[in-house]
Amino acid sequence: MTTTLSKISRNPRDPGFFQNPYAFYDELHEADPTFFWEDYGHWCFGGWEDVNALFRDKRFGRQILHVATREELGWPEPKPHTKDFDAADAHSLLYLEPPEHTRLRTLVNRSFVSRQVEHLRPKIETLAHELIDKFEDRNEIDLIAEFAAPIPVLIIAEMLGVPTDMGDQLLDWSHRMVAMYMFGRNEEVERDANAAARDFSAYLRDLAAEKRANPGDDLISYMITTEHRGQKLTEAELISTSILLLNAGHEATVHQVGNGIKSILESGLSPGHLFATPEETEKTVEECLRFDAPLHMFTRYALTDMELDGGIRLKKGDEIGLMLGAANRDPRQFNNPNTFDPHRTDQGNVSFGAGIHFCIGAPLARIELQESLKVLFARLPNISLSEPPRYANVYHFHGLEKLMAKPAGAK
Questions:
Q1: Residue-wise over 278-297: b if at least 16 C-beta within 10 A, else e?
Q2: What is the distance, to the nearest Å, from the Cα of residue 375 to the centroid of all Cα atoms in its chain?
Q3: Do 289 and 308 meet the contact criterion of CB atoms below 8 Å apart?
Q4: Of 364, 293, 373, which is closest to residue 131 (Cα–Cα)?
Q5: SS3 state of residue 61
Q6: Which of 88, 223, 363, 405 has a C-alpha 20 to 30 A away from that of 263?
Q7: Coil, strand, or helix at residue 128?
Q8: Tens digit of pLDDT for each residue in 157-213?
């Protein structure tokens, strides 16, 4: 890790930036991908080697209040108008550190390992066909709303035991809650996210009560009854975990399906070759994950005072940003990083993170991507974009507002 201790200002809400952050990443890699991002107020790391190492560095954590008080950190008290959101987030696997993280992850991990989610392939394939049946004869469709979004939300809902007719409501709650992570959010966004969290939690609380009385073959029933070293999930932990799995179980995958379709169509490569075999399909999906990842920044806290290589001094509680999108385009790690090349031999994207917070849903997300993209391009080999895609104004959740296409590629 070497750095010139540079400070950079770049507004994440500037359309010129979030529509193409890769131009910024190219500048960083040309100079130094380690810099202080003044708009965020913390150090950021965009080099693949640094991002991969810092994900695994136990001197950093996703939370800090387990080792420091708000007073010690100089933090204000929680906002009263976000109390329901904070409660829903309080026991999230995304933020817990060992031993709590270890216990909760152990309780849910077995449902997401590769051998458990592999049986979902036929279901995902069938769902993709059913969605395409509805729009293949139309002149124009939005692939985000009509293809990318329904698949992961319906799959994760069914896994958890949530009625699939709740799909639209789950998407609404999720989108409103995720807005809390947007740079420069205002009080209106916070209050709306809080209301969504309150309603989401109340729904899950009632659903959990039903499953305690009549357990089924689903993840919520499993989480209610399973134990780890004699301990079960509390109701608060069950609510937080269910919300996380529902939100994370579809949000990033929706973005990656959309980004992947865009990448393939703009690459000029033949989809027929990209999905010719299961091996080619896997390679194509991994390149989609590298080339245009759905998550571009993941933050962590320094759990102690330290000095990193290059003279970067951090105090306990300081936040750092790990720039996944930049790391995936690091020319020191990947040959021709700005070229979409599923046949590259230097694959190794960090889109799912690393270390103890490696994405628990990675095996499921990979299968959803493989099956949905394979079916789409098999059914619609001449599909084409009907207007230039535009990314949503949420920099670190890097996904398209819509993806308008002509299903048959007809003019």
A1: eebbbbbbbbbbbbbbbbbb
A2: 23
A3: no
A4: 373
A5: strand
A6: 363
A7: helix
A8: 888 899 988 988 988 998 899 888 777 789 999 999 999 999 999 999 999 999 999
| Cα–Cα distance for residue pair 141/406, rounded to 1 Å | 7
pLDDT (tens digit per residue) in 159-168: 889 998 898 8
Q: What is the pLDDT of residue 228?
A: 65
Distances (CA, A) of 135 to 16, 129, 143, 146, 297: 32, 10, 10, 8, 34
In whole angstroms, how far apart are CA 155 and each of 60, 124, 159, 180? 33, 7, 6, 25
Residue range 10-26, pLDDT digits in tens: 999 999 999 999 999 99
Instruction: Using alpha carbons, select from 214, 217, 204, 145 the residue that is nearest to residue 177.
Output: 204
Residue with tokens 């708000």, as numbered in its chain: 70
Strands (E), 9-52: 34-37, 42-45
Average pLDDT over the chain reads 91
Distance CA 350, CA 392 (A): 22
